[in-house]
């Protein structure tokens, strides 16, 4: 017999069947006998089959015999042990074979029943713990369950062991894994299905808040033990400790109620949630109910104050719920509503220096008092001017609020009433009645205002502002903010004069506003240069000019004014004028010449709409001018500039006034065409937009010159006619050479840049010469009535068609105004001429001839626009700003005009914007970064509308579905939708018109939505190819997704946390084509499956037919409202979020009222725009209306991948390209 194992009690069929050792084999054998021959020796082997030797070949090594007496056959003993080291493999069965060899050479062989190597412990799986099963929740190690009743502790589990049988199992219960401090190790029965359990009430658990962990062990036949622990079960039999709730005693209308709580603790199980309610009594919820997470210790009740009634009290109840649903609650104190802000009195600026009255001690005390009780006392303390530029002091009459009291005071210093531009609002002690703001830098300011804000217990505030404190510079030995001085003037003079004719009247005017301190009085004195006082000090009060007409002044003498100024600080200073000389010599008249040739007079001017004149010689010495005649017989004038130094100062001209009239004899007819116009010191002028009559009628220029001494002289031209003078033949001869030069350069015309304008051909006049020949004169003007050129031709020698062609060539190469250029189109001013010029074709010149009934064509070339004058043309007509490379200009004059804008347009000067635009241009490459294969094409600076049309044609979507609004160039002009109002786009069976994309977008994603940060992540998530153009349409809902999921929670966590997942309310304002894209917004619902989205679209530029139209799909509900947001929003529910896409806040006045609405409601608001320039204009608009400001614009990762080209600049423009939010001012 052969038995596996070494235990002497083992028998055949009852030995080891499993072992865990993989390196040794042991066996025992017995009853090997041969009565006849006896057993001489033994060998043994190990194999994977009976009698096999593939693991250990037959060998005598490792055999140990038992001692025996009386061995049969006189051989060795019949029994013994065998042991050897071998390499075994888990999960295999091995057999031990022993053979005995007799003295006769016979073999006695026996094989064991085999054993299996088992290295793995049993697996234990817990199926149920208390009332929880493994299919409901995770009940394994590391988790925690909570129970109310101690007798609920029970468990059920099962075993798995694929190699050997489970021999025994036991469990224990402890407060830590594998512990037994609650229940000692206890063996359990194992059912035939390998299950074990212990029932309810078997174990008395720990109920002190410690976890009860069940530890289970199981041992298999190989002697290997497996073990596992359950989740910890904590028994909680008590409610959480009662906390404390703190809420404001008073709240205002439209102000959230902010409450906090502390003290809700539970030593057994944590708090799982809080139920927050508000009602008319303790524990009531008739006003508000919400559930907030356990980690919250405060909550804002938004929108509830609208439902609160004045005069009633309300309570907030906070209920803490622990993990076993046991509750405790606490109440706030009574909450009342206060709808009125505090009442306020005056704010008085105080003097910052000590004032002394040496004659009256009580007056000194009153002067330096810090508080006032009545209006009279306050008036006596009110300071008009400040003695320092570093501090301001104020006192104020106390604020009052009989309902909720004054909770705090704040103070600010600004340049406008209520403003905080210099020092923003900060808290000051509540019991303060006066305050001094220090460490200011007021240098450069004129007037500052100190504002005091009082806030009541309901959070409502009132602001009172001082009447302004003027800063004094001169009294502190500092230069004034701007020039101060006194001018010698004459009646109707402009600025200071150095000469005057009158010897009995002296005038002066003064301006000391450069030192902002208020003036108590002016005193005026007039002296002669030798010190003789002509007029003693005269009290002028606060008048800023004076006149004395009773003087006797001498010709040639100089007189000047002295002004003694006393300001509100009783500081006195004296200024003087530079004097005026009495000079009674009249101003010498000059000459006026008709025409724009300097120094020459023309008898005819060619244009009916504009005329020119020039003049010279006013105030000049007689020897400085010389008159002569030119060939035409018209007088001319030359000035000898070498002797101009002989001109006296009082003969110098200060300015000219020019007029045009029909008769120089009468004052009323000298300016009946163009009234007198101040042209400064210019010596030429051109008047435009006239309607003069050609022929024999005369027109005259009249020039008035005003000297430094305000002597006036007038000169009138000798008149001119509208038309041409002299012989028509002579005129034709002079012009012929220039015309022929232009006509031989037709090829050069085709190379000229194109101006986006229409040149209109008009018959100027028809003339008959001395030989009786008829001549036709044609002229060309543009759409701004600017004459480009004229051409006269003999009617018999040149046809109308050829004359038109010749005229266009001449005007293009040698225009009367502007650069050489060709127009985009040419037509006749009088449509009837089109019939006379039948056959006119300018296409070989690259110019389109327009006439009634001609077929429409799409724009053949890309046009650019001057940033200033809006002239349109091809890019060759323009140059960029050399610094920022952003703006385009048609001329140096336009660039200078843009750089030096003044007055109301000063804020738009390119001098201010150039550096900013250079920074905007640096974003060009960043804005081009998209993962799409077509991005390099669609973001190119050359991707114009024609290129976009080609792109859409390649994609197969041009004029299809929602793509019909994308490009204004159409394959079929009958499909043009330019005039179709938004909302009236005919419906399409397939709005996407991309088969693969349509099928994907029709179904919700199979896998759970994750946060998507950019287009690449979104395309991968939805399974779109990177060559799909669907992003062009989807950038609208994806921009909303980015705002809702990323921007809104990060920027407004308190609002996001208060959002009820059952309904997120969104207002989309200023909509246009969004009303035609409703089906795309279901994608927003797919990506936000955890919330229901309620969207209202507000728009003015939409069709009335879509008003109140609705759309629903799964968790997205949309309603369209026609009308401005500020007028229609109150008719609907209050939103959580307001969004305006491609808004242009700084470009449209309609946003003003809507911004007022947003600021009043303080709803979080986000806007997008095409470019950073538009965002900065929005900042200016918001801040200018004192509505707060905007955040710094950021690039929208879900912007449209198609660049929008702006004609007047090269800044990167993308639909929904930049994103910002409104930052409201602090309350």
UniProtKB/TrEMBL annotation:
Provide the alphabetized UniProt keywords.
Answer: Metal-binding, Zinc, Zinc-finger
Q: Which domain of life is it from?
A: Eukaryota
MF terms (GO), sorted A to Z: zinc ion binding
Pfam families referenced in this protein's UniProt entry, alphabetically: MSS51_C, zf-MYND
Q: Which residues form the signal peptide?
A: none
Please state every residue range assigned to the domain named MYND-type: 866-914
InterPro entries in alphabetical order? FN3_sf (IPR036116), Ig-like_fold (IPR013783), Mss51-like_C (IPR046824), Znf_MYND (IPR002893)
Q: What protein am I looking at?
A: MYND-type domain-containing protein
Give the organism, scientific name: Mytilus galloprovincialis (Mediterranean mussel)
């Amino acid at each position: 017999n052969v038995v596996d194992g070494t235990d002497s009690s083992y028998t055949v069929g009852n030995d080891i069947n499993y072992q865990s050792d993989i390196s040794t084999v042991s066996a025992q054998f017995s009853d090997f006998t041969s009565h006849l021959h006896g057993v001489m020796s033994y060998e043994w082997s190990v194999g994977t089959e009976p009698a096999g030797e593939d693991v250990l070949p037959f060998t005598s090594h490792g055999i140990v015999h038992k001692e025996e007496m009386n061995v049969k056959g006189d051989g060795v003993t019949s029994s013994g042990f065998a042991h050897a080291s071998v390499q075994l493999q888990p999960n295999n069965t091995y057999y031990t074979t022993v053979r005995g060899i007799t003295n006769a050479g016979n073999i006695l062989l026996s094989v064991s029943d085999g054993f299996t190597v088992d290295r793995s412990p049993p697996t234990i799986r817990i199926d149920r713990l208390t009332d929880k099963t493994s299919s409901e929740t995770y009940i394994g190690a590391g988790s925690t369950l909570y129970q109310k009743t101690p007798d609920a502790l029970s468990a059920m589990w099962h075993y798995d062991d694929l190699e050997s049988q489970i021999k025994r199992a036991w469990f224990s219960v402890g407060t830590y894994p594998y512990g037994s401090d609650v229940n000692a190790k206890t063996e359990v029965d194992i059912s035939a299905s390998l299950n074990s359990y212990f029932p309810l009430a078997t174990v008395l658990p720990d109920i002190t808040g410690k976890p009860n962990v069940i530890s289970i062990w199981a041992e298999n036949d190989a002697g290997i033990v497996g073990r596992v622990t359950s989740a910890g079960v904590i028994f909680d039999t008590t409610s959480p400790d009662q906390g404390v709730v703190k809420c404001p005693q008073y709240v205002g209308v439209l102000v959230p109620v902010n409450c906090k709580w502390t003290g809700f603790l539970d030593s057994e199980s944590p708090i799982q949630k809080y139920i927050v309610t508000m009602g008319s009594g303790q524990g009531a919820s008739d006003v508000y109910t919400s559930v907030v997470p356990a980690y919250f210790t405060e909550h804002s009740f938004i929108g509830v104050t609208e439902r609160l009634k004045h005069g009633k009290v309300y309570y907030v109840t906070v209920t803490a719920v622990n993990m076993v649903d046991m509750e405790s609650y606490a109440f706030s104190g009574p909450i009342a509503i206060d709808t009125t802000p505090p009442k306020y009195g005056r704010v008085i600026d105080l003097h910052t220096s000590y004032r002394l009255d040496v004659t009256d001690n009580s007056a000194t005390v009153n002067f330096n008092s810090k508080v006032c009780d009545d209006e009279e006392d306050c008036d006596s303390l009110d300071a008009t001017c400040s003695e320092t530029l570093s501090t301001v002091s104020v006192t104020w009459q106390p604020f009052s609020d009989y309902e909720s009291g004054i909770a705090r005071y704040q103070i600010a210093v600004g340049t406008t009433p209520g403003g905080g531009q210099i020092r923003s609002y900060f808290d000051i002690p509540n019991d303060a009645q006066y305050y001094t703001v220090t460490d200011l830098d007021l240098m450069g300011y004129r007037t500052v205002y100190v504002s005091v804000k009082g806030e009541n217990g309901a959070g409502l505030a009132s602001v009172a502002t001082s009447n302004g404190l003027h800063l004094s510079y001169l009294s502190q030995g500092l230069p004034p903010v701007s020039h101060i001085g006194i001018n010698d003037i004459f009646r109707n003079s402009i600025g200071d004069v150095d000469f005057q004719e009158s010897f009995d009247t002296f005038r002066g005017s003064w301006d000391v506003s450069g030192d902002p301190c208020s003036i108590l009085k002016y005193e005026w004195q007039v002296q002669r240069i030798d010190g003789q006082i002509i007029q003693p000090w005269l009290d002028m009060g606060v008048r800023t000019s004076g006149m004395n007409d009773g003087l006797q002044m001498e010709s040639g003498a100089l007189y000047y004014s002295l002004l003694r100024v006393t300001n509100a600080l009783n500081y006195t200073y004296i200024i003087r004028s530079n004097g005026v000389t009495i000079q009674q010599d009249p101003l010498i008249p000059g000459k006026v010449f008709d025409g724009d040739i300097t120094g020459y007079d023309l008898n005819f001017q060619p244009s009916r709409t504009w005329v020119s004149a020039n003049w010279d010689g006013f105030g000049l010495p007689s020897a400085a001018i010389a008159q002569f005649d030119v060939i035409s017989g018209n007088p001319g004038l030359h000035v000898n500039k070498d002797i101009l130094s002989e001109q006296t100062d009082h003969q110098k001209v200060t300015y000219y006034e020019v007029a045009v009239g029909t008769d120089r004899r009468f004052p009323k007819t000298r300016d009946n065409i163009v009234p007198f116009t101040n042209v400064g010191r210019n010596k030429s002028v051109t008047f435009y937009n006239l309607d003069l009559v050609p022929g024999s009628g005369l027109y005259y220029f009249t020039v008035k010159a005003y000297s430094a001494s305000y002597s006036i002289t007038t000169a009138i031209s000798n008149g001119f006619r509208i038309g041409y003078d002299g012989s028509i033949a002579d005129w034709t001869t002079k012009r012929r050479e220039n015309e022929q030069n232009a006509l031989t350069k037709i090829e050069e015309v085709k190379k000229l840049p194109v101006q986006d304008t229409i040149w209109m051909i008009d018959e100027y006049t028809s003339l008959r010469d001395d030989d009786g020949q008829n001549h036709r004169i044609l002229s060309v003007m543009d759409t701004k009535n600017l004459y480009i050129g004229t051409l006269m031709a003999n009617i018999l020698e040149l046809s109308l068609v050829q004359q038109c062609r010749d005229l266009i060539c001449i005007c293009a190469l040698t225009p009367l105004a502007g650069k050489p250029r060709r127009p985009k189109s040419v037509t006749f001013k009088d449509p009837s001429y089109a019939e006379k010029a039948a056959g006119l074709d300018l296409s070989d010149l690259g110019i389109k001839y327009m006439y009634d009934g001609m077929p429409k064509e799409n724009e053949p070339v890309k046009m650019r626009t001057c940033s200033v004058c809006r002239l349109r043309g091809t890019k060759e007509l323009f140059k960029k700003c050399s610094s920022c490379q952003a703006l385009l200009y048609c001329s140096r004059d336009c660039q200078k005009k843009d750089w030096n804008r003044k007055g109301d347009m000063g804020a738009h000067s390119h001098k201010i914007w150039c550096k900013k635009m250079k920074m905007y241009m640096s974003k060009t490459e960043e804005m081009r970064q998209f993962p799409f294969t077509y991005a390099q094409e669609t973001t190119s600076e050359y991707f114009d509308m024609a290129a976009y049309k080609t792109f859409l044609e390649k994609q197969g979507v041009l004029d299809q579905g929602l793509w019909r609004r994308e490009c204004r160039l159409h394959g079929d002009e009958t499909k043009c939708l330019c005039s179709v109002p938004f909302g009236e786009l005919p419906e399409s069976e397939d709005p996407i018109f991309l088969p693969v994309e349509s099928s994907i977008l029709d179904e919700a994603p199979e896998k759970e939505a994750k946060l998507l940060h950019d287009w690449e992540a979104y395309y991968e998530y939805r399974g779109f190819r990177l060559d799909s153009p669907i992003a062009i349409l989807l950038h609208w809902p994806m921009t909303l997704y980015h705002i809702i999921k990323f921007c809104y929670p990060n920027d407004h966590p308190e609002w996001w946390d208060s959002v009820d997942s059952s309904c997120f309310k969104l207002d989309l304002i200023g909509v246009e084509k969004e009303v035609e894209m409703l089906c795309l917004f279901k994608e927003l619902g797919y990506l936000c499956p955890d919330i229901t989205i309620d969207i209202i679209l507000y728009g003015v530029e939409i069709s009335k037919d879509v008003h109140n139209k609705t759309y629903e799909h799964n968790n997205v509900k949309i309603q369209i409202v026609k009308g401005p947001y500020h007028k229609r929003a109150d008719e609907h529910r209050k939103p959580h979020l307001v969004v305006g896409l491609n808004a242009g806040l700084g470009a449209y006045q309609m946003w003003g009222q809507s911004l007022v609405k947003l600021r009043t409601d303080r709803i979080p608001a986000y806007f997008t725009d095409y470019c950073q320039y538009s965002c900065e204009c929005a900042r200016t608009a918001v801040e200018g209306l004192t509505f707060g400001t905007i955040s710094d614009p950021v690039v929208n990762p879900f912007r449209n991948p198609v660049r929008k080209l702006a004609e007047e600049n090269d800044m990167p423009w993308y639909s929904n390209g930049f994103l910002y939010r409104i930052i409201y001012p602090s309350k």
